[in-house]
Amino acid sequence: MALFVCLESGRFWFPAQAYLKRMPLYFYDVIVSYNSETDTFRARSPNNEWRMIGRNIEWDRLRSSPAENFSRKFYMSNKNDLKPGDHIEIQRRKRRECPYDWWYAIVGHLESCDENVNHCSCQQSDMLVVEFMQYQHWIGWRKTVLNRNVYEDQADSRLSWLGGIRKLDKEEEIERWKSLLN
Description:
The chain has 2 helices and 11 strands, in the order αβββββββββββα. A hairpin with a 7-residue loop joins strand 6 (87-93) and strand 7 (101-108). Strands 1, 2, 3, 4, 5, 6, 7, 8, 9, 10 and 11 form an 11-stranded antiparallel β-sheet that branches. The longest helix has 11 residues, at 171-181. It starts with a helix and ends with a helix. By secondary structure, it is mainly beta.
């Protein structure tokens, strides 16, 4: 009963990931409290010394963390099974001392590939093309190339750091990202 009272009163804060209506598109770690009067949440971010970063955040802008790791820890995954067209979430941070955010992307084709399914050898390459779909084709930040065999942060063209990759296998996760892109 005490937990319910704390939740209803907004005194109980718990970890989640939030997407605020901003560009670029990503989820990041927050702590949230419920506002029973508006049926929405308030959020505080560890990136901003736990300052308030959002109010009236709706349910569909929150999720639990998709991976069993903290935002400062590199997510270990198998990059060798990724192929063009796979939907992924990739860890990204501005500086090495900052926590990771989760960004939506799609695995793309290498420049040397003609994108013909019968001749594509992108999956056998040591290099992995990551396309951030929230950017237009002509923006230089849309694509970056990573080394599949490096299991630590890699610098990208935006002077940020890319970490682990989580392949999206559930159609509902892919559809959620697509709906956020619209």
